[in-house]
Design goal:
Elements (H helix, E strand, L loop, with lengths): L1 H16 L12 E3 L7 E2 L4 E4 L2 E3 L6 E8 L5 E3 L4 E4 L5 E11 L5 E11 L2 E2 L7 E2 L4 E4 L2 E2 L6 E8 L5 E3 L5 E4 L5 E11 L4 E11 L6
Parallel strand pairs: 2-9, 11-18
Antiparallel strand pairs: 1-4, 3-7, 5-8, 6-7, 8-9, 10-13, 12-16, 14-17, 15-16, 17-18
Length: 209
């Protein structure tokens, strides 16, 4: 009887020991629950958190990149955070891995992040008048480079106006009436670029008596 009692105690202790850290009789499943990651924009701060679940809480997880590549400018830390400032546009595919630090059980998943490029946000430009000073600044969103370079890709500005390459400012003294169509282009130091078709109408100089 004494032997059976002692055997029972040993079995109970073994059973309790196997439950430490939420582990019962074997490795528990771990699953990456993140199914998609948000898009990002060149030049704008990006943060996303990878998520995973297992049957019992309280176990530390370690994340790593198993294959492919994150967008340029982004990194992933062991806690599953993807952060940084994207510098290139495109869709970047990669494989993430999560490991349960207690039982070394793991899961992997294919994910992707799409980074949108620069955009010239100026949609229209005001009219001008012959002989009257004109000044407008072209606007851009995004851009991962330290500086921007503007140019006229096609068409032409009104006679007497010019586009400053470093600032995107169109200014000058219009000398000819008419509607002038052109394509403005901007490039950053990482060779990201954007273009936009625009036009400026110049009215004739008012007649004075």
């Amino acid at each position: 009887m004494g032997k059976m009692w002692r055997l029972g105690v040993v079995l109970v202790l073994i059973s309790l020991g196997s439950c430490i850290h939420g582990k019962k009789t074997g490795p528990e499943d771990i699953t990456i629950t993140t199914t998609a990651l948000p898009d990002g924009t060149i030049g704008e701060a990006y943060t996303a958190k990878l998520e995973a679940t297992r049957r019992h809480k309280g176990i530390d997880l370690s994340w790593s990149l198993e294959g492919g590549s994150l967008p340029n400018g982004l990194i992933m830390n062991a806690n599953g955070y993807i952060t940084g400032v994207p510098t290139k546009s495109g869709t970047f595919e990669f494989i993430v891995k999560v490991v349960d630090n207690y039982d070394q059980n793991k899961d992997v998943k294919n994910l992707s992040i799409t980074i949108t490029g620069m955009q010239i946000t100026t949609t229209s430009l005001p009219d001008g008048v012959v002989g009257v000073a004109y000044i407008q600044t072209l606007q851009v969103a995004g851009g991962g480079g330290a500086s921007l370079t503007w140019s006229i890709a096609s068409g032409a500005l009104p006679d007497g106006l010019s586009l400053a390459a470093s600032s995107g400012i169109i200014n000058g003294l219009p000398s000819k009436e008419g509607t002038f169509s052109f394509v403005a282009r901007v490039v950053d130091t990482n060779n990201n670029e954007a273009s936009k078709a625009l036009s400026i109408t110049i009215a004739p100089s008012p007649i004075t008596i």
